[in-house]
Amino acid sequence: MFSHNKRLQYTVRVSESNPGLANLMLEQFGGPQGELAAACRYFTQALGEDDPGRKDMLFDISTEELSHLEIIGTIVGMLNKGAKGRLAEGVEEQGELYRSITGAGNDSHLTQVLYGGGPALVNSAGVPWTAAYIDSIGEPTADLRSNIAAEARAKIVYERLINLTDDPGVKEALGFLMTREIAPQKSFEKALYAITPNFPPGKLPGDPRFTSVYFRMSKGEPELRGPWNQGGKWDFMPMTQDSAPVGGGDGLATVELSAEEAPVVAQMAARTQSARDGDPLTGAELGIGGEDGLAPDADLVGPDPEGLVRKPLK
Fold it and tell me: Are 79 and 21 in contact (CB under 8 A)?
């Protein structure tokens, strides 16, 4: 059961209307790193969670994310308030009104016209919110790592938004939202490391022949090494065109076909085989005209065993 408290989790004070800034704020309302995506991600994870402690944690954090959604949506609405009134009441000349809502140099005019200045479930570029932003897979050790990364990305977006405004009230509210991206990261990390073992994700172990191998797939200098590919925990293996397949064998793919399948596949291969001899005339060559060395008035004849050919007209 949910109930709504009319007071915001954090008090918002906006100094002046700014529809351009409001449009940028939509990134954290309906964008991939935004509060709605976070709330839905953790809420759906909670519904499927079997551990009662993690279930409570996910429900708590997802509910707070909805509080953050309310804060950022309120900021959007307040920044749009003046332009919304002017546009709704038509109190200015059309040209002046258009300039006032497009002066920020972004798509804020679309937000005003399509959504009346209200917070829409789109990002700052007008792309609609989608459930595809939710990347949960139902394995706690994988989802918790994804959650940590999601909170980190959201923090970075808030930092960028803070750098875009000099409105002290907006900066203060964004600072709170940015800070609250840190605490869930800590909770998710603690929950992750409370699972033993938690790496690699899932139940099945990796093949020990490959779990600690670093394949050097690029060539050229400098060859930079670090703790990600050197030391006693790594087997560093440069790979070249002449390297043998790492799993043995000849590196070629094979398939066993049934007695019924084999002749049909052979028939299909023969029918679609490309001829290796001859030089068939193509539509591109026809468009080139005489640039291929043949007379531009050459006549097209064929087909013949060597494909389409041209011979000079007589």
Answer: yes
**Which domains, and CATH codes, for the chain?**
19-193 (1.20.1260.10), 280-314 (no CATH)
Q: Is 225 helix (H, G, I), strand (E, B) or coil?
A: coil
User: What's the rounded Cα separation, in Å, for the pair 101 and 82?
Assistant: 10
Q: How many residues are recorded in the chain?
A: 314
Using the structure block, give the residue that is written with the tokens 């605490």. 183
Q: 44-78: b or e for each residue (b if 16 or more CB lie within 10 Å)?
A: bbbeebeeeebeebbbebbebbbbbbbbbbbbbbb
How far from 154 is each of 63, 76, 129, 159, 191, CA to CA, in Å? 17, 17, 15, 9, 20
Token pair of 266, please?
A: 């052979």
3-state secondary structure of 127: coil
Give the whole-angstrom CA distance, residue 162 versus residue 170: 8
Cα gap 1→4, rounded to integer Å: 10
- Range list of β-strands (E), the chain: 213-216, 235-238, 299-304, 307-311
For the chain (314 residues), the mean pLDDT of every run of 10, in chain order, is 92 91 94 98 98 98 98 94 61 56 58 73 92 96 98 98 96 98 98 96 92 91 91 92 88 94 96 92 79 54 51 50
What burial class does residue 260 get, using C-beta atoms within 10 Å of its C-beta: 0-12 exposed, 13-18 middle, 19+ buried?
A: exposed
φ, ψ dihedrals at 54, nearest 5°: -65, -35
208: Cα separation from own chain's centroid: 32
pTM, two decimal places: 0.80
